[in-house]
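[agent] plan:
  1. take the single chain provided in the ticket
  2. run structure prediction with default settings
  3. attach C-alpha cells to the ticket
  4. add a short note for the reviewer (M.T.)
[agent] executing step 1
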Amino acid sequence: MEGGFLAEGGRVRRLGVEEAAAYRGPGFLWLHLEARGESDLALLRTHTEMPPVAASALAATETRPRCDRLGQGAILNLRGPGELVPGDSDRLVSIRFWVADHKVTSLSRRRLGATARVVDKMESGRIHDAGDLVAAFSHAISTELDPQVAALGDTLDDVETELEPRNLYRLRRTITSVRSEAIGFRRFVAPDRDALRTLVDLNFSWLADDDRVHIVEAADRFARMAEELEAVRERAALLHEQITDLRAEQVDQRALYIAVVAFIFLPLTFITGLLGMNVEGIPYKDEPWAFWGVVAFCVLIGLFVLGWFVRRQWLRR
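[agent] step 2 finished; step 3 output follows
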C-alpha cells in the first residue's frame, strides 16, 4: 500500500517511495509509508521542507491522536481500525500525517483499514489537495469504526435478553470481552475527536470550507462513539453486578435447600439412632409391624418439618 500519488492537471500518477520522496515539482503529492522500521526517519529527513520535529513525530514508535501547528503545516495523528498484532493492548492502529500546502506525508506502523478506501478515492481523482486527503481519512476512519462500536452495544442487548441463571458463566465472559474492547476503543476515540476539532479551528489555506464540514462531521461521529462507549462501559458494569447478584442468589438458594434437607433429616437421624442402640428395652422390637411403623413415623415427621418450612415461606425464591 505504501508509495506516492501525484495529482496534477486532473490526472493521478502513482510513484515509488524514493521517487515520491525526491519529487519537488508542481501538483499535489501524497507519500504514504508503512512499517519501514529505522529507515523511516532517514527517509523522512530527505524532505527538506519537513521540519525535524515533524519527521520525528511521524517516525515515533508510540503515538496518541493529536494535532499541532508548525508554520503553515500540521502534525496530525489519528487512530482507526486495522491490522492488530497479538498481545498488543492498542485496539486501534495509528496513522501520522505531516500536512503541508501541496504535499502530505503519512506513516503507519501497521496496515490501517481506511487507507485502501482513501487510495481508491485518490486514484479515482476525487482528492485534489491536502484538505481533501485529511477529510477523506477522517471520514473513512470514523465510518469504519462506527459499526464496531455499535456492535458492542448490540452484544450487551443480547446479554440482557439472555440473562438467566443457566447462562451466567458464558455471559460473564462475553461482558468482560465487551468491556475490554470498549476501554480499548475509548482510549483513542475521544482524542481522535479532539484532534479533528483542533484541526478545524486552525486557519490553513489548504483547508477549504467543504473540507472543514466533512472533518467536523467525522469529529461529531467520534464524539457520539465516545459517548456510546462510555454508556457501554456503564452498562457492562451494571450487567456484571446483576450477574454477581444472580450468582449470590443461586448460592443462597442452594444453601437453603441443603439446610432444609439437613433440618428434615436431623430429627429422623435422632430417632433412627435412638432406636438403633444395641440395648435392652427397645419398645415393639418383637412386633412384625415395628419396622414399617418406624418408617411411617419418620415420614410423618419429615412431612411436618417440610410443611413448616412451606408455611414460613422459606422455600420461595
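[agent] step 4 note for reviewer: The chain has two domains: 3-246, 248-311.
[agent] ticket updated
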